[in-house]
Amino acid sequence: PGKNHNAWWDLPQLMNQVVDAVDIFEYTHLTKVAIFIFNCSLAHKGLAPDALNINNMNIGPGGKQKHLQDTVIPLSNPPPKPGHSNTWGMKQTLVYPDNHSNKTLAGHPRRIKMVLEEYGHLTEEDVTQASVVEKTAADTNNWCCMIQVLLLQEDFCNEKPMPQTYIKKQGHVCLFLPKFHCELNPKEMVWTYAKLCDTLTIQCFFHKCWCYMDAYRQDLYASICLTCSHFVSDRVST
After folding, report:
1. Following DSSP, what letter does each residue of the chain receive, concatenated?
2. 53 in the Ramachandran plot: left (φ > 0), alpha (ψ -120 to 50) or beta?
3. Tens digits of per-residue pLDDT, 40-93?
4. Which of 22, 51, 126, 184 can pair with 47 through a Cys bridge, CB separation 3.0 to 4.6 Å?
């Protein structure tokens, strides 16, 4: 996103190009596996709208919240407390069914508090007593609040960017270059090398563009424009 989140280049536009790029590669290289390499940018690392993203969830009832995809309670969760059932490997829906007994919840997304209770390793009393803090203020190394408890779940931690998910699903490889390390980014090196151009060459490029514009003003076709530009260039060089 640009200034003030102006979507001059965002995830939907990127995904359109990714889908086209995969289709083109598979058409031209039937038996090959593609390796897609991206910079580490907000658009490239964007998650799908229904991904397990803690930033799209609310603590309790009220406010707008996106409908997230279903998941499976990870086997790496802490063991259940005595007297509570084991929920490891159970399907976890993050949207209430349309036929839910509580009409106010039917078809609505589940909130963080309810998801934690259904995960089974925290009781309702634990969740109620948990401190609710700002997402950016919590220490990710400590299970200090409801947001961090859910954020550190394996299924939330392992959520992949949307481009990577699509590319991998199509049987190809998706890699991301490290952030803030241009020395590890070959694309930056190519771009830097491309800018190593002397002034005379730049002038020649500008002159060629002017030749095209002059030819277009005379209503000439593209093929004739190219011939005219070469002819003018030859005359200038002599």
Report:
1. --GGG--SS-HHHHHHHHHHHHHHHHHH-TT---EEEE-S-TTTTPPPTTS--GGG--SSSSS--PPPPPEE--TTSPPPPTTS---TT-EE-SB--TT-SSTTTTTPBPPHHHHHHHHSSS-HHHHHHSB---TTTS-TTS--BHHHHHHTSHHHHTPPPHHHHHHHHTT-EEEEPPTT-GGG-HHHHHHHHHT---HHHHHHHHHHHHHHHHHHHTT--HHHHHHHHHHHHHHHH-
2. beta
3. 777 777 887 777 877 778 776 656 777 888 888 877 777 777 777 777 777 888
4. 51
Retrieve residue 55's tokens. 């930033």
Give the pair of three-digit tokens for residue 190: 């190519």
pLDDT in tens, 147-192: 777 777 888 888 889 999 999 999 999 988 877 777 777 777 777 7
Residue of 233, 174, 181 lying closest to 205 (CA atoms): 233
For residue 109, give the nearest of 92, 127, 124 by alpha carbon: 92
Q: Which tokens is 172 given?
A: 């190809």
Q: What angle do CA 145, 88, 79 make, to 5 degrees?
A: 60
Q: How far apart are CA 129 and CA 16, in angstroms?
A: 45
C-alpha of 191 from chain center? 23
- The rounded distance, in Å, linking the Cα atoms of 147 and 221 is 63
